[in-house]
Amino acid sequence: VTHSIPACIGSMTINSKQLDNESPVSIFAVNKCYETVQDGTFFDGSGFAALVREGYKVRSDVNITLEFRTTAVHGVLLGVSSAKVDAIGLEIVHGKVLFHVNNGAGRITAAYEPRGTNSLCDGKWHKLQANKSKHHISLIIDGNLVHTDNPYIQSTSADTNNPIYVGGYPADVKQNCLTSKSSFRGCLRNLVLTKGQHTELFDFSRAFDLRGVFPHSCPGAEH
Prior knowledge:
Elements: E1 13-14, E2 17-18, E3 34-38, E4 41-56, E5 61-70, E6 75-81, E7 87-93, E8 96-102, E9 107-112, E10 126-133, E11 136-141, E12 144-147, E13 162-166, E14 185-195, E15 198-201, E16 209-214, E17 218-222
Antiparallel strand pairs: 1-2, 3-17, 4-13, 4-14, 4-16, 5-10, 5-14, 6-7, 6-13, 7-8, 8-9, 10-11, 11-12, 14-15
């Protein structure tokens, strides 16, 4: 066995002596244990998950669905960006959810603004669906639909061939459709990207780079 166990271990004794796990000599990729856990992936607000090393092609159509819960009013949800201007981005800014798309002619944004600044940042699960269909974009949060007008109707394809960054992105990586640099703090689950008939559910434990992300469980209440 060459990989770590996704579990909690406590009260370990060796030769009747209890080990002190509060002040270890060294520690690597070990998180707290929690009294209650939920399915999903925990982002501690310091990093990101990087998916599809070989590059994700957004092109003309993509439908993104995910569920999130957070108590922070800022945070990157997802970004795919070329080195040019073509890109898509999902983020929470001042408690609003923004879906940005640039097909090459200019950035357009669908914004969902809840009634209260903190109503999406209440620590409860919220469902998000972001859809790009050629030059049309829309955003659905908890069943509430937001459309936006796009003046660039001739430009329909976001020509990316780049990794999908979730929850944040490295400092040296350009993200043309994200305005926030704040890493997401909270939990994400059920990230699905659909193109035509092809649906892909992303497993964060298979990310090629994980920083400050714990893919196997979300804390319900800290212990």
